[in-house]
UniProtKB/TrEMBL annotation:
The species this protein was found in: Marichromatium purpuratum 984
This protein's UniProt keywords: Methyltransferase, Transferase
Entries under InterPro entries matching the protein: EgtD, EgtD_Methyltrsf_superfamily, MeTrfase_dom, MeTrfase_EgtD-like, SAM-dependent_MTases_sf
Highest rank taxon of the organism: Bacteria
The keyword Methyltransferase is assigned to this record: yes
Domain named Histidine-specific methyltransferase SAM-dependent: residues: 35-333
A Gene Ontology molecular function term of the record: methyltransferase activity
Protein name as it appears in the record: Methyltransferase
Keyword presence, Transferase: yes
């Protein structure tokens, strides 16, 4: 397969010299993109901000800390599934080829899959530039024969891969139940874009959190140590730094609740008093008790997720769960795209 250093028009060129075997492609959204998205979200009713804004360098570190909390079961449960079934997954995905990963984040899960798959090329895609670079360099040390094409991009919108040639039959990995951060129609659209990326006959290995008791879900998103609260409020700190905002972090409280009817955990930042905040020169008024909706995390049953995937052109091939059926990992094959 011809692996070329090409990106979408207008993106920055590849950077070499980071570490042997690593090339870095920077298609990170511009400050103007961030400004426009934030201002539109705060002007909406109700106010909302995208969860992708969580992942600056500090936010990525905080999320890594969340994954180690006793209340946060998804990461350790998904890792257990990968450890138990990694060889079977590799048989389905195909060894020695190109592996894409959406939202690479921490390298814990991908190391398991890389060891089983032994791909020729690994393309991690993540919006957090510093975290992505550090992860790619760490992986290069552990897998010196692996070509790593780290791509800093927002995978929630269309983007170009840094590869060219025959796209059919590629493999992709989308861990962490990040698919749950999208509204169902948005999730279907994202899956359709992934289907195009991997081509007919390509496969996607995707982690999906399962529906379960309210107490378990709400504890996972509102831990006793307050790490998730710090993660949520760090979004405001990022806006203070990057958009010259003047949020008082102590005037906003972290809230997490499970909406059983919609099958999702919602995260909010609640204004503790009436206040006015300036962001990028624009003023926004908050009533006491008003919230900024910062994240949804949809939970699925297996049949429901398979129905969603089928609408995006995927055929379910295999699903693995843990003994307590907290979490699931699905292997999907592209039938049409």
């Amino acid at each position: 397969m011809n692996i070329a250093a090409t990106l979408a028009t207008g993106s920055r060129p590849p950077r070499s010299g980071i570490a042997p075997g690593v090339r870095f492609f920077d298609a990170h959204p511009t400050p103007d993109d961030l400004r426009a998205e934030v201002l539109a979200g705060l002007a909406a009713s109700p106010k909302r901000l995208s969860p992708k804004l969580f992942y600056d360098a500090r936010g990525s570190r905080l999320f890594d800390a969340i994954t180690e909390l006793p209340e946060y079961y998804p990461t350790r449960t998904e890792i257990g599934i990968l450890c138990d079934h990694g060889e079977e997954m590799a048989d389905l995905l195909g060894r020695g080829r190109v592996l894409l990963e959406l939202g690479s984040g921490s390298s814990l899960k991908i190391r398991i899959l890389l060891a089983a798959l032994e791909p020729e090329v690994y393309v991690p895609i993540d919006i957090s530039r510093d975290h992505l670079r550090a992860s790619a360099e760490s992986l290069a040390e552990h897998f010196p024969a692996l070509a790593i094409h780290a791509t800093c991009a927002d995978y929630s919108v269309p983007f170009e891969l840094p590869i060219e040639g025959d796209r059919e039959g590629l493999a992709a990995f989308f861990p962490g139940s990040s698919i749950g951060n999208f509204e169902p129609e948005e999730a279907r659209a994202l899956l359709q874009r992934v289907a195009v990326l991997v081509g007919i006959g390509g496969r996607l290995l995707v982690g999906v959190d399962l529906r379960k008791e309210r107490a378990v879900l709400e504890a996972a998103y509102d831990d006793a140590q307050g790490v998730t609260a710090a993660f949520n409020r760090n979004l405001l700190e990022r806006l203070n730094r990057e958009l010259e905002a003047d949020f008082d972090l102590d005037a906003f409280a972290h809230r997490a609740r499970y909406d059983a009817a919609l099958g999702r955990v919602e995260m909010h930042l609640e204004s503790l008093r009436e206040q006015t905040v300036t962001v990028a020169g624009q003023r926004f008024v908050f009533a006491a008790g008003e919230t900024i909706h910062t994240e949804n995390s949809y939970k699925y049953d297996i049949a429901g997720f398979h129905q969603l995937a089928a609408g995006a052109g995927f055929v379910p091939e295999r699903v693995w769960t843990d003994p307590h059926r907290l979490f699931s990992v699905h292997c999907l094959r592209v039938e049409a795209c």
